[in-house]
Design brief:
Elements lengths: L1 H17 L8 E5 L3 E4 L5 E5 L10 H17 L14 E3 L2 E7 L10 H15 L9 H12 L10 H17 L7 E4 L8 E4 L2 E4 L6 E4 H5 L4 H4 L7 H21 L5 H15 L1
Antiparallel strand pairs: 1-2, 2-3, 3-5, 4-5, 6-9, 7-8
């Protein structure tokens, strides 16, 4: 883990220096999925691709799509963090890197209502995005392949793997929805991907953007936030909440040991499915 962080940090700082940025106070902000580096004192954040849990595609392609989605949303006043002027994506030491605006975070927590309103604004800003996006089903197919392979989750006990595999497949069948209901989704709009800033709520980590049913996104937020979407199918939403837990559990067990947060989430979501 330390070697991965060191490599990602060095690559981000090297890129910043090449672009003429002052990176003398650079620091790692997060190292859960990808490695996030604030190129302080500059108002620029480098996102370094050090994990490929949701997609098998190269990080450069994922980041290129993420930047395109963010720019589309920004033009339509969507509540997202803006790509930096030299957003990229860039390649350094074999790692894909994208650059983003650094925004100050407020201490005050957002209300569920604010989260719901912000998520609806996000959806509206991207409803006419015509670029190629993965389907949610493709992502879930990949999760299914992972949990079906004992070698892909070596830290998960055999009985637990069988339980998670069976539960995941049952939930997918239960949460199926017609293609006609699909729209552009954030893909993972949980609290860690929404910043409270002086300019208002701003969504980050758009590499999970995909096309799928509304209820998938709403499964990541609370009941009051979901009320902002009166068109919601309540039964489908209930199934999607469980399916989200199953998918999170799969990916966290697949990458168990990457970070304490990953390990905690792996255990938490597996136990939640038993409840």
């Amino acid at each position: 883990m330390a070697a991965r962080r060191i490599q990602a940090f060095a690559a981000a700082v090297e890129l910043g220096a090449e672009l003429g940025l002052d990176t003398s106070e650079a620091r790692i902000l997060q190292d859960w999925n990808d490695t996030i580096v604030h190129l302080a004192p500059e108002p620029v954040v480098a996102r370094v691709r050090t994990s490929r849990v949701l997609s098998a595609e190269p990080g450069f392609e994922t980041y290129a799509r993420e930047i395109a989605v963010a720019r589309h949303a920004i033009v339509r006043n969507g509540p997202v963090v803006a790509p930096a002027e030299a957003a990229g994506p860039h390649l350094r030491d074999g790692l894909a890197i994208s650059l983003w605006e650094y925004l100050e975070e407020l201490q005050a927590e957002l209300t569920e209502r604010q989260i719901g309103v912000s998520l609806r604004a996000f959806h509206e800003a991207l409803h006419d995005f015509a670029g190629s996006l993965p389907r949610l089903d493709e992502r879930l197919d990949r999760a299914g392949e992972v949990i079906a392979d004992p070698a892909a989750v070596p830290r998960l006990a055999a009985a637990d793997r069988e339980f998670l595999d069976t539960t995941f497949r049952a939930l997918r069948a239960e949460a199926s929805s017609p293609d006609a209901s699909h729209r552009v989704l954030h893909g993972g709009p949980h609290s860690a991907n929404l910043l409270s800033t002086p300019a208002g709520p701003r969504w980050i980590d758009l590499d999970t953007v995909c096309r799928g049913p509304l209820e998938w996104d709403l499964a990541h937020v609370g009941a009051e936030a979901a009320e902002v979407f009166p068109e919601t199918d309540a039964d489908l939403l209930a199934s999607m909440r469980k399916l989200v837990s199953a998918e999170v559990a799969i990916w966290c067990w697949h990458t168990y040991g990457r970070a304490p947060e990953v390990d905690e989430a792996a255990i938490h979501h597996l136990e939640a499915l038993r409840g």
